[in-house]
Amino acid sequence: MERNFELRALRESHPSPTFAGEPMSRSELAEAVNAELWRATGRRFALDAHTLARYERGAVRWPNAAYRSALRAVLGASNDAELGFMPTRRGASASAENPVRAAVEAAEESAELDRRDFARAGFAALVTGVNVGQRDPLDYDEELRGLQAIDVNRGPEEPIINVATLLRSITNDLRTSRGTDRAALLRVAARAAEFAGFLHRDLGEPDRSLFWHDRAMDWAQENHDQPMQAYVLLRKAQAAYDGRDAARMLGLARAARRFERVLSTGLKAEILQQEARGEAMLGLSDHGIRAKLDEAKDLLAGPRSEEPHDAPGSRYSGALLDLQIAVCLTEAGHPRHAVGAYRAFLSSHDSSTRDRAYFSTLMATALALSGEPDEAAVTVCAALAVAIKTGSRRTIREANNVAAVLRPWRNRSTVRDLDAALADAVSP
Asked: What superkingdom heads the lineage (predicted)?
């Protein structure tokens, strides 16, 4: 394949915004392109260093129009030819010529990026003897809390880009941090990566979600933070539920419970209900499932020891447990009982608009299984409007699950309306 020397030369003609005297890296260019597209369109894009490496190798000769436009704006090119791009036959790809070689080159590019970044930071630390340019971990923590508040109020699409920038900055600092500063930085790094995993899960991007949950686990393990390790395992179990992978969900929940000696009361209770849900999906006995749910209720009803207010799972409440018990009841074959539990929660509990839409969609599944197709379809249609506005692909995916349950009633007008709304939701 013919390499794109024009794009690389143009990138390297621009200075790095992070390291004085160095050219702009692929990661930095990707961040700038994504920020430009967010500014210009209000939509979230996810160009990364590995994709730019493919552009520079010539594996992709004609990126989509949005990326070409943003690259022109960021790099100051007047046309696509200055970027080294040229139209190709539809569907043609230089990487198809030798996919094995392309994969090897991509791995080499990735390794070289890591080595270069590490060398830069490590050399600076050796010369100065200090953690160059590092921010206080408390500043990172405050920024993370602000992004979490944005997610609660407006959904995942707005904070996701800033979370990626935050994590890049934290990762750079981790390369040179030491001692107590490093422990504090690892703590916020794990929390930020877990949050990124949650956002990608809500956006319907399971691979990216798993990637960040894996990073969160790495940092929690390095920091010997057992409660955070358990919390990440719980998050992975919840993600497994999205794909209805009951065996994986149950295994991860049981792995999380091995840390129960050091967990907050709320986290213990939430792990128990997740384990009960996995057992319900696998058809285990109702007696064992109810025993776990009762144990979780007893934990939350009893006295709580002194726990840090920000300990993983510390905010888990009896109301949320009641909601998740409704999910268990549906999976255990008791959808009518589940509907009552959902209604009680939604009528009395104050949650974000995005979360209420997701919970309503789960309730719609129980309604459909209870033989209430019209109410189920109407409920999902209302939730879809919120899901589209907030970018919650997780809710849209659950809406598709409801539509599958409603297939026997597909000739009813309410179900046809739902099918039409779903078609609009997934159309470009």
From this structure: Bacteria
